[in-house]
Amino acid sequence: MNRLEIILSGKALSNPIIPASGTYGFGDEFAELYDINCLGGISFKGTTREARYGNPLPRIAECGNYGMINAVGLQNPGVEHVIAHELPRLKSHYNGAIIANVSGFSIEEYVETCAMLDKEPIDILEVNISCPNVHNGGMAFGTSPEAAAEVTAAVKAVTTKPVYMKLSPNVTDIVAIAKACEAAGADGLCLINTVLGMRIDIRRRKPVIANRYGGYSGSGIFPLALRMVNQVARATSLPIIGCGGVSSAEDVIEMMMAGATAVEIGAANLTNPMVAKEIVDRLPALMEELKIEKLTDIIGIVNHE
Amino acid sequence: MKQQLFEIQSNEQIAKSVYRMQLGGDTTGILPGQFVNIRVQGQFLRRPISVCNITDGILTIIYKVVGVGTEAMSHLPIGTQLDVLTVLGNGYDLSKAGDAPLLVGGGVGVPPMYMLARQLREAGKKVRVILGFNTKDEVFYEEEFRALGCDVTVTTVDGSHGVKGFVTNALDGQQSYYYTCGPLPMIKALIQAAGTHGEVSMEERMGCGFGACMGCTIQTTKGPKRVCKEGPVFAASELLL
């Protein structure tokens, strides 16, 4: 028995560790350092209908010990290129679960992109309604329950793949959004995306990020992410991919105890490219220490009373 | 890309706000024009620094203190172990040098010229080097380039050392090809004066430094390219400046 195995919408993952979209590309850079088949899944770079360059530079800001801000703005080669080139290459050397992260600027765009991916060898559609770095799209769909439900229902209507909605923390009530997605037919949820933030260069008296604001990520957002995962886990019955500031095996256990079935590793990949593998390798010993027989036993355990 | 532990063997100031650090470790595979990405305690992101030279397991970098990360680096004692990503970026294409290449470095754009100059000299090329600085206190590595047998001209904006003015004031138009690294205004002026028969090392604020985050992508005539991965060296003709 694989004590690390978890199941997401019928798909068995060898372990709950998934690099988060936008921090792992299509895995090529990391495959130079280790065999990426050790990962339960990979959520590939956020893909849109058309190719995008993204935002003006600089689009990265340092945030000291605990994180960074990015305002990349969904740079990607477009879904047709992804289907023709990136996805076959990833599939040729990776056997785990492939999660397609999709973004859009209109309902039609989400629908078209997801419909095109429906025939492809992916296991889960992760629909990003929470990118803080693009105007008139992305997060706009993730900040109202009605809009979130509309995207969910529209995508569900054109795909046979499990649909996981990726939620924004930049809202007053994430539970209301999560419930709206559940009611509209979502198969699961992924949370959280980055937290809208800012840095100022005090010598130049200007924002560091050309786009002014960007998404804050890194270990600094972990407690916030954990709280939101827990709130949503207690209010819905959907499987949750927990994400936000996770950088150790201990954080993974905490996320799962809060209610996550799988766990995404984001910004930590960018500073320590070995971190996802190190976490997978460390989990068995940590489970031994914590007397966890199998990981599925602890999902949402703090909610069982 | 490789992830390695290096040990600091020296870390000394060589000019105003400029430090040279020598690191012992595995330097195999490192090419001139590439950079390394160094983890600094207390900082989330690594610090990307160009490679100045490699010799028998010693990596030399030269960096300027510009913020808290490089400030912290300048205080690191000998013997400190550093987590370093190496073999990052593409590096210069030495096959295009011709017989009489010109190397132009401005400020902390000077260091990557050193390993390039050394390899071009080893290949028997007649190498001309122009090193541009603001003022005398900032000048470094003039003698080191001379010791390689390069024809060296130093320019300072205020005229306190060498030729007064900018690197473009020292051009003679005799080069077969050029290689450059330095501040953007210098690069623009050089391309305007010397044309596009050369290659340029670009600098951008980076997230990961190895191609995963798309934080440093620039637009080129051949589409978007990551400075950390498809660069940092670009043909002058493909830049949109």
- Please state roughly what percent of the residues of chain B sit in beta strands, choosing from under 5%, 5-15%, 15-25%, 25-35%, 35-45% or over 45%: 35-45%
- Count of helical stretches of chain B: 4
Strand order of the largest sheet of chain B: 10-9-8-7-11-12-15
Q: Helix/strand/pairing class of chain A, anyone? A: alpha/beta
Q: Which spans of chain B have pLDDT < 50 for at least 5 consecutive residues?
A: none
* Relevant CATH superfamily of chain A: Aldolase class I
Work out the count of structural domains of chain B.
2
Q: How would you characterize the largest beta sheet of chain B?
A: 7 strands, mixed
Secondary-structure arrangement, i.e. CATH architecture of the largest domain in chain B: 3-Layer(aba) Sandwich
How far apart the termini of chain A lie comes to 28 Å
Helicity of chain A, as a percent range: 25-40%
Radius of gyration of chain A: 18 Å
> How many separate helices of chain A?
9
Give the overall form of chain A. globular
pLDDT averaged residue by residue of chain B: 97
Characterization of this structure:
The complex is a heterodimer of chains A (305) and B (241). With 305 residues, chain A is an alpha/beta fold. In chain A, helix 3 (107-117) packs parallel to helix 4 (145-156), helix 4 packs parallel to helix 5 and helix 6 runs parallel beside helix 7. The mean pLDDT of chain A is 96. In chain A, the strands form 4 sheets. Chain A has an 8-stranded parallel beta sheet, covered by helices on one side. Chain A has a 4-stranded antiparallel beta sheet with strand order 5-6-14-11, with no helix packed on it. Chain A has one domain (6-57, 73-196, 218-303): Aldolase class I (TIM Barrel, Alpha-Beta Barrel), CATH 3.20.20.70. Chain A has 9 helices and 16 strands. The longest helix of chain A is centred in the N-terminal third of the chain and has 15 residues, at 79-93. Chain B is an alpha/beta fold and 241 residues long. Chain B folds into 2 domains: 2-88, Translation factors (Elongation Factor Tu (Ef-tu), domain 3); 94-199, Nucleotide-binding domain of ferredoxin-NADP reductase (FNR) module (Rossmann fold). Chain B is 15% helix and 36% strand. Chain B is built from 4 helices and 15 strands. The model of chain B has no long low-confidence stretch (mean pLDDT 97). Classes of the chains: A alpha/beta (305), B alpha/beta (241). At the A-B interface, helix 1, strand 5 and helix 8 of A face strand 13 of B.
